Request: fold
Amino acid sequence: MLLSRNYQKRILHMLILSILVSALVVSPSILGNNFHLFDAPSLEISVNAQTSAESETQQNNTQQAQNSRKEKENNQQSKNAESKEEQGLNIFKIVTGALAGLVLFLYGVTRMAEGLEAIAGDRAKGLISKFTTNRFAGVATGTVATTILDSSSVTIIIVIAMVSAGLLSFVESLGVVLGSNIGTTIGAQIVAFKISEYAPIAMFLGFLLIFFGKQERWKQIGLITLGVGLLFFGLETIENAMEPFKDYKPFIKLMETLGNNTLLGAGVGALFTILVQSSSATVAIVVTLASQGLVSLPAGIALVLGAEVGTCADTLVATVGRERPAVRTGIFHLLFNVVSASVGILFASQLAGFAQWVSRLAGAGDDVARQIANAQLIFNLLGVALIIGFLPLVARGLERLIPDGKNQDKPAKAKSGV
Reply:
């Protein structure tokens, strides 16, 4: 009896405990999420918060790792690009190619000058001798003669020789010197037309005329034609050799420096002109590189201004051992080019803007090569226009600065009027 009562109590206790456990389990779903006996949801929130914080930390760490990895990859890519650029830029090949093109260009200029002088040299002397009655006729004569001979240095050297021989007076020579500066711009205009693709045709025609021409005149014409072909073929060779510099940052910075520092650019242009002994060569190469996008307009103008000064070296050498009037002609050429180039350096930005306006007006648009060629033409035309009215004063000043020697005879020929 006692055993049965204890058994019944145990069953009752178990039943009550079962009901209580069932109530604890079922109560959240019955009473809603707002009633929690043991605050279990707060534990869940804290756990979720901790999990969220851990996940955010992991995400931040992952993001930082990804950023670091990307930065390393970018640095590696830039290093690889620089190394590829250095490996791809074969300096030896570029230099040898540019030198080969320069040799071809200068050889072509020399051969063309020889042919022109053989055919038109005496005519040029006669032209200079006859049509220098006044300063304006002298400018026109110098322009035409330089265009025919394709070299301002050759024209001025001929003039110096004629003055020294008494065939031309010092006063008459000044206009021819001014005109030679205008005539030398014609070559740059021709180069800016980009006709180098026809160079092989000219070379082939010149070869045929030289070897199969029966008369000496045809052979000289063949020499001129061959020289023209070699000239443009040399420029094309230089252009192809310098093409890798288009994306080479040090070269781009150098051109920017020359453009920003006009005086430095002019110095480089003058030294290069003295080296190759031809301002036409310097300007032609500058125009060719500009057509490739390697030379900007400011840098091109600076180099061209320097070429105007560098070309005086040949004429000064030509005055050595000459009579005083011939020396005055060489000194005038030097002083005029130095003073005009100095003014050009001071107003380089205005010259560039005016050249751009003229080029666009002429339909050339933003062609930098054409703009540089036009800038040289504008520069020389303005220089001649500004000085031509003062030639008599300049002539008297140079005669006082460099007087005739005591035992020096008067020139055999002396015309009046400047």
User: Anything to note?
Assistant: The chain is about 80% helix and 0% strand. Confidence is low (pLDDT under 50) at residues 23-50, 83-87, 410-417.
